[in-house]
Amino acid sequence: MANSLSSQTKISDSRSGLIFRISDFIDRKIHLVMVAPAVLILGGLIIYPFLFNLNLSVHNASIFNIRSGDFEFVGLKNYIDTFKDPFVQKSLLRTFYFSATTVILQLVLGMIAALAFHTDFRGKSILMPLALAPMMITPVAVGLFWRMLLNSKWGLINYLLSLINIPPQSWLADQRLAFFAIIIVQVWWGVSFVFLILLGGLSALPKEPYESAMIDGATSLQTFRYITLPLLKPVIMVVATIRIIDALREFDIIYTLTGGGPGDSTRVFTLELFQIAFERGNYGMAAAQAIILLCIILILTFGLVRALSQTGNLT
After folding, report:
1. pLDDT, averaged across the chain
2. Could you tell me which residues come within 8 angstroms of residue 285 by beta carbon, excluding any fewer than 6 positions away?
3. Nearest-CA neighbor of 241 among 177, 314, 183?
4. What confidence tier does 314 reach under pLDDT thresholds 50, 70, 90?
């Protein structure tokens, strides 16, 4: 009887010790336990599609064999053919030009707007929602909205130009004007986001440097150049990184606005990828192009984040 009680006591102590160790482990690793479900879900939603796409990019997958899954392994052929394709080369150049132009314009206009709204003026509470309105509209709606505005026959833009004796322009039918139009629309849509982030950054800047500059008699331009820009550099680089990523993968606005035309004048890399995948049915090459676009974005993002970390404001 005594032996039985002793063994039961040992089992109970063992269970209690095990429960204590598990509880102690959870207490020490509670942050990992809490984020584990989200990590698992994101891993399934990101890692598996990426690996599937990577596997597809090294096989000859097309509309003819996608159902059977009987793909011929071709190695790096899809990547090599992508870089050899003159249409892809042109689309890459258009993408880089489109991204650089739109991001620079958004940063400049966003900074001007942020500086203006950082001061108090009459009607500020009314103009603020209007300034933020573009970022609340979905890209597809933006494209359709501006497609009506830029219509060569009854669009509002040509009507306003006619009031100052400028003849109507074929905004979406002329190759040069069409590319200019997608830049303007992209800037219009994205500048409100840049403005909002920069305005928040300006509001968080310390007041002491500005008070010292005022005492020293610094002009507004000198204050902006030597105080505002250096202090705001981390915020500018963060918002520039976000906008560069968005510009490189822009699809919705351009597709609904021009569809890549006229001809191929506005066919950026994402539209080229779309055409190869869903119009030509070459899924292997399209997957390779998606991997290439991902690598370009990662390289640029890594460079910007590294530059930001060297400023001592990101660890």
Report:
1. 86
2. 78, 81, 82, 276
3. 314
4. very low
- Cite the beta strand spans of the chain per DSSP E: 59-60, 72-73
Give Cα 266 to chain centroid, integer Å: 19
DSSP class per residue in 1-50: -HHHHHHHHHHHHHHHHHHHHHHHHHHHTHHHHHHHHHHHHHHHHHHHHH
Q: Find where tokens 């990426």 sit.
A: 50
Q: Is the per-residue pLDDT at 6 higher than 80?
A: no
CATH class, 77-309 region: mainly alpha
Residues of the chain with CATH 1.10.3720.10: 77-309
Task: Write down the pTM of the prediction.
Answer: 0.84
Lookup: tokens for 82: 């992508």
Q: Please report how many Cα atoms fall inside a 13 Å half-sphere around the Cα of residue 44, on the Cβ side.
A: 5
Mean pLDDT for 143-151 is 93
Which tokens in the block code for residue 169?
Answer: 């322009």
Total number of residues shown for the chain: 315
Closest among 99, 134, 106, 131 to 194, alpha carbons compared? 106
DSSP secondary-structure letter at 51?
H
